[in-house]
UniProtKB/TrEMBL annotation:
UniProt xrefs under Gene3D superfamilies: Umud Fragment, subunit A (2.10.109.10)
Localization of this protein: Mitochondrion inner membrane
GO MF entry, a single one: serine-type endopeptidase activity
Membrane-topology descriptor: Single-pass membrane protein
Entry-linked InterPro entries: IMP2 (IPR037730), LexA/Signal_pep-like_sf (IPR036286), Pept_S26A_signal_pept_1 (IPR000223), Peptidase_S26 (IPR019533)
Name used for this protein in its record: Mitochondrial inner membrane protease subunit 2
Length: 150
C-alpha cells in the first residue's frame, strides 16, 4: 500500500488566502469616526459592518447609511445617510436652490447637519461607489442595525 501524499504547503496557504478573500468580498469591518453622523455614529468612533455585496445590484433606499469615496479625493471615505435617489428633486435651504438628482447618482447628508460636509457641499455622489453599512458596534455587547432592511 502506497503512503498517503500530503498536499504541498503552498496550496493550503493559497486556499486559506482565497477563503479569506471570499469573506472580505461579502462583508468587512471598518472603524467609523467623525461628528457628521452623530448621534447614529459616535464621534469618538464606532466599528461598522459593511455589506460589500451591494456593489452588485443592491436596491438602495432613502435612509440607508452608506460609505463611499469622494470622486475629488479617492483616498477619503465618507459615511452619510442617503436622502434622495436618481430622479428625485431636492431643495438646498442654504442656497434656496431646487435641483434634480441626476441618473446614476444619489444625494447624501449627515445626521448632524450643522457639522457635516456632504452633498450640500460637493453635490450628488455616483451610486456605483456606494457600500451599505449593516450595523454599528459601540462595544462588543452593543450592536445596532442602521438600515431598516436588516
Amino acid at each position: 500500500m502506497a503512503p498517503a501524499r500530503a498536499l504541498p504547503a503552498p496550496l493550503v496557504v493559497h486556499g486559506r488566502r482565497r477563503q479569506l478573500r471570499r469573506r472580505r468580498k461579502y462583508c468587512k469591518l471598518c472603524y467609523l469616526k467623525g461628528s457628521s453622523m452623530v448621534p447614529t455614529i459616535q464621534a469618538q468612533g464606532d466599528v461598522g459592518l459593511l455589506d460589500r455585496r451591494c456593489l452588485a445590484g443592491y436596491d438602495f433606499s432613502r435612509g440607508d447609511v452608506v460609505v463611499f469615496r469622494l470622486s475629488t479625493d479617492h483616498g477619503m471615505k465618507m459615511v452619510q445617510r442617503m436622502i434622495a435617489l436618481p430622479g428625485d428633486w431636492i431643495q438646498i435651504p442654504e442656497k434656496r436652490d431646487i435641483r434634480q438628482v441626476p441618473s446614476g447618482h444619489c444625494w447624501v447628508e449627515g445626521d448632524n447637519a450643522g457639522n457635516s460636509w456632504d452633498s450640500r457641499h460637493y453635490g450628488p455622489v455616483r451610486a456605483f461607489s456606494l457600500t451599505i453599512i449593516l450595523s454599528r458596534f459601540s462595544s462588543i455587547c452593543s450592536v445596532s442595525f442602521l438600515n431598516k432592511n436588516w
